[in-house]
Amino acid sequence: MPKLKKLLRKLLYLFFSAPQRQARKEAAQIIAEAHARRKEIERGGLQIKPNHEIELAFVSGGKPYYKFVNEQNIPVMRAFKAMDVYNELEMRIDREYLLAFFKTTRKILEHRTKLDLPAIVQLIVAAEGKMKHITNIDTLYRLASVLYIAENEDPYNWDYEFAEKKIEHWRKNSDVESFFLHSPMSDFLPSFHGLPAFKSWDDFHKAQQLDQRTTYELMLSSISAGENESETRQYLSFLVETLQKQMSLKG
To answer: Which among 23, 69, 85, 99 could disulfide-bond with 53, CB atoms 3.0 to 4.6 Å apart, if both were Cys?
Structure first.
């Protein structure tokens, strides 16, 4: 009987340990490849697989930006983000605005001793107005951050902070609009023939940002004064400050 138990233990060890060793080996290889690719990216080289060829798209502020030759075959993680941004373009409302709307409405309903229906109606009217906009230019910039890759960027993933730095660079240099006008994104751009108040998409963009900032300030004023330290107020203040910073980039 002891011999049988010993044999069973040995068989169980061989049965379970071999797949585990193989799995660990495969995991180590994947990690090693990821580290190698990261080092290559940090050195400024884009490591691209054969089925993901890239080509130069445009230069902004002396920095080159690339795009995938076959835009229907972009890497999975970027494709998922592109789908999210396309949905925002369709709605004319981005995720940050929706979060701000829901957070503010909840605060009004939870913490007002008297229900402030006019404040809620104002927020709803503002949201409906945004959905009637032709295009949200900020969302269009975000789409560009998915489709166009910097030299020192991981082409297989989309990183929020890195994307924000790219967008800030493009805004500062004001030299990408002409490229966008001749790219597939031009389908989303407004035609200014029917908008005499705006001479360019830059004017239109500034008007949108001002409208957005005004709405966030309205949300802030709708929250009870006792909510100064609340997460909602901090979030709204962050959005206002971010917009103010973006607007100041172009004067």
So the answer is: 69
Which single residue is written with the structure tokens 């970027």?
78
Strand segments (E) across the chain: 54-60, 63-68, 149-150
| Pairwise CA distance, residues 65 & 145, whole Å | 10
Q: Residues 117-130, buried b or exposed e (16+ Cβ, 10 A)?
A: eebbebbeebbeeb
What are the extents of the domains in the chain? 54-249
Residue-by-residue pLDDT tens, the chain, 251 positions:
454 555 445 544 544 555 556 655 665 665 565 555 555 544 445 556 666 788 888 888 888 999 888 877 788 888 888 888 888 888 888 888 999 999 998 888 886 567 778 888 889 998 888 887 767 788 888 888 998 999 888 888 899 899 999 998 988 887 777 677 667 666 565 554 444 444 566 777 788 888 889 899 999 888 865 566 688 888 899 999 988 887 776 65
Q: What is the pTM of this model?
A: 0.65
Query: How far from 130 is each of 89, 115, 126, 193, 242, CA to CA, in Å?
Result: 11, 25, 6, 20, 19
The tally of CA atoms less than 13 A away on the side-chain side of residue 58 is 18
